[in-house]
Amino acid sequence: MHPSVIQEGDRLKHTTVSPSVFGCPVCPKFTTRSESVIQRHLLNHAANAVHFKEKIICRCNLPCRDGGHFHCPFCDTTIIRKDTIMPHLMQCKNKCDMAQLTSATPPPPPSPETHPTVLSSLSFEHSYTLPPSVSAVKKDHSYPQPASQSPPPPTAEDPIAPTEVVNGDVPRTHSMCPHCSVVLYKRNLFLHIKRKHGQVKDITAQSHLQSTSIDKSNGLFAVWKTSRGFSIPVHVQRKTWGQHQVTRCEMEDCRQNHLLAQRSGLSHSLCHHIRSLDYCNTTASEEQLDHQVLQEMVENRVFADSKIAVCKARQQEAEEAHVPLSVLVDFTGLNNHICLSIHEPKLHHYSTLGRVFVTHNIKKNTWHCPCAKALASCPHKYIAKWHLYQTHKHIFKTVPSTITSATAVHSSSHPTAEMERSVRYVYKNKKIPTHLPEEATARRAPTDFPQQLFPTETTCKLCEDNPELEEAVLITNKATVVGMEGLQNISTYNRRCTKCHMVYRYQEWTDGLHNFNNHVIITLQLCLYLRYNLQNHVSVSQVVSCLETLLKVKFPESDVIFQGYCQFEALCDTQYKYSCVSRGFYPPVMVMDLHRKGVFSFEASGLEQPREEFNGEHDIAAFWDSVHLHMISRGFFESPAQNPFVVKPKYDNWAPWIGGETCEGNTVLNTEFEKVPLQGSSGDPQLGDLMEER
After folding, report:
1. What residue spans define the domains of the chain?
2. How confident is the model at residue 546 (pLDDT cuts 50, 70, 90)?
3. Which residues of 378-417 are buried (b: 16+ CB within 10 A; e: fewer)?
4. b/e string for 573-604 if b means 16 or more Cβ within 10 A?
5. Percent of the chain, pLDDT > 90?
């Protein structure tokens, strides 16, 4: 039996890679030095396993096939999806039981004396007589029957084995659906029949779709779209009073079926959404939205000031039409979702009844409206946010801005001034020591690092009264820890001050990690390894390429890792104390040999002219601090256009680097600007200097 299949009551046992390294029997890439970690890993395998009869089937990650899979204990089949293995196990178990029954010793044939009635009931055409010559050669050989003869019909006592109709056009790995003749994999046939051809229950008082009234004056209702799983509700109108009586559903399929029924003379035929209204006994109340809430939302940066006029105009249009602007639809089964019915004054393909549904996913912090794309804004989303901010304000406490998705880079969700304070705070308070302890740079397995990275600050360090920070906000659950041992996915969180709105993120070197941009986290061991390679003239891209080839995993882009390494060096509290071995800190002459090769080069025409009042003096400390801030800010701002710390080389904005022990103060001279030729004073011949010779 495969090692991933164990008996009930047994446990997976770890393997020993070396005397101090443990391994998993079904995960070849997982190793750890901690016994508690390997035990927890094996318990997770058992917790996520498939329990069938007296067997526990764990997920196997061995190279039996690409990707994780499950092994069938009764055959050699491997199944990837966990939800499809149970039908296969039941079918395979039945086949094994049937094979065991047929392989047992058959009973002796009945004799005429013991069963005269049974033998006499057989017709003459079902009794076969073999020629003597043939029967003498081989008694157990089977012979084809004549075409006019048919096999005897099975009796009630005979077991009927399941038969499979083999079609020459259908591969052996596929089957044809008996209902719609669709050819699909055999392992998917059970789910296909269950989903597409399941028995549709009739609409009764015990079995009907949830519904609620949202506009009594116009007979508008919200009805659950399907009876199984999550789905967005649909609008249904049934107005049976007044001059204009109408009954219709906004679903296109329902409208087409209703038109077909009317042409066929079945005018009483209604869809299951409309029929469910017979059992509707609830009414959703309208929420009167306050204008003061809009101003508060602008102050808290939920959306911009320009959206206030749009929301007020939509509210006025709803009041003039005497319809509710926004109605909260609360159905059972809306897991982590909030649905609101919003008024739409114009009729479109997505609002055939004058309303649209806006859905908010609380877990993922996403908004969905049928009139706009996933990340695009629209008036319906503004009104939905207005409604929820007034009734469910706690939803916005952990979400500083709902303009972007929860998985977007956090720098695009906060204003520039707040992120600028965060960069300066990290540069001042999150310095990495020059000599790191061995615990921070020790070799670790990717799974030994924390799976969730939270900021350690709980109160604001910049405000005088030190207010408490907001609850942690999930930035992404797909952040990648990049190390010498491979990659590991983790989750990162941010916190924000309720007063100054400064953002705090995880930036703790004591865990052996360096957070670059909340999405790529580099281990300190890898940072030091990159430093040593650069000192030996090996580029970062070459190091990343070698690690990818060795570990057989795809690393993030080498440029991203290089920027993360530069940020690490900018945060290191390095003490530069270079000196001449013979002259100390005050050499009388500096020879520009290897030093010259470290100077970057580009066209001088691309540099701006120096200012007229510039005299060549620079503050060396302030300039190189700005360079450090530029390196650090790359992990906070998504694009250079939003980054206020970008340092652009200019004649009047570049200072030479001189050690602190060599110069008397922070003021140094940069005389390169004196070499710049004045515009229009080039020594090259001009067009006006040329003479025409005939």
Report:
1. 5-96, 206-406, 411-571, 594-675
2. very high
3. bbbbbbbbbbbbbeeeebbebbbbbbeebebbbbebbeee
4. eeeeeeeeeeeeeeeeeeeeeeeeeeeeeeee
5. 21
User: What are the tens digits of pLDDT across the range 106-122?
Assistant: 555 544 444 443 333 33
Per DSSP, the chain holds a count of helices (H) and strands (E) of 17, 26
CA gap 612, 162 in Å, rounded: 95
Task: Determine the residue type at 689.
Answer: D
Altogether, the residues listed in the chain come to a count of 694
According to the 3-state scheme, what is the secondary structure of 511-533?
A: HCEEECCCCEEEEHHHHHHHHHH
The vertex-142 CA angle with 139 and 147, nearest 5°, equals 135
Strand pairing partners for 653? Answer: 650
> What are the CA-CA distances from residue 494 to residues 498, 507, 523 (Å)?
13, 11, 20
Q: What is the C-alpha to C-alpha distance for residues 411 and 504, in angstroms, rounded to an integer?
A: 12
- The number of C-alpha atoms within 13 Å of 370 and in the hemisphere containing its C-beta is 18
User: Taken in order 540, 541, 545, 546, is the CA torsion positive or negative?
Assistant: negative
Q: Determine how β-strand 520-523 pairs with β-strand 473-483.
A: parallel
| Nearest in space to 222 (alpha carbons), one of 345, 356, 372 | 356
Helices (H), 509-657: 524-535, 540-551, 558-571, 594-597, 620-633
Axis crossing angle, helix 524-535 with helix 540-551, rounded to the nearest 10: 130
Residue whose tokens read 């164990």: 6
CA distance 247 to 270: 9
Dihedrals phi, psi of 691, to nearest 5 degrees = -115, 145
- Asked whether the CA dihedral 517, 520, 523, 527 is positive or negative, the reply is negative
**CA-CA distance, 662 to 585, in Å (whole number)?**
5
Identity of the amino acid at 103? S
Report phi then psi at 597, rounded to 5: -70, -15
Residue from 529, 521, 528, 532 nearest 564 by CA: 521
Q: Backbone dihedral region of 146: left (phi > 0), alpha (psi from -120 to 50 degrees) or beta?
A: beta
Cβ contacts of 184-189, under 8 Å, gap ≥ 24: 187/79, 187/84, 187/87, 187/88, 188/84
**Structural tokens at position 204:** 């009764």
DSSP secondary structure code for residue 580 in this structure = B
pTM: 0.43
The answer to whether the Cα torsion of 131, 134, 139, 141 is positive or negative is negative
CA distance 694 to 677: 35
Summarised one tens digit per residue, pLDDT across range 194-203 is 777 766 677 8
Q: How far is residue 563 from each of residues 187, 535, 573, 604, measured CA to CA in Å?
A: 47, 17, 18, 26
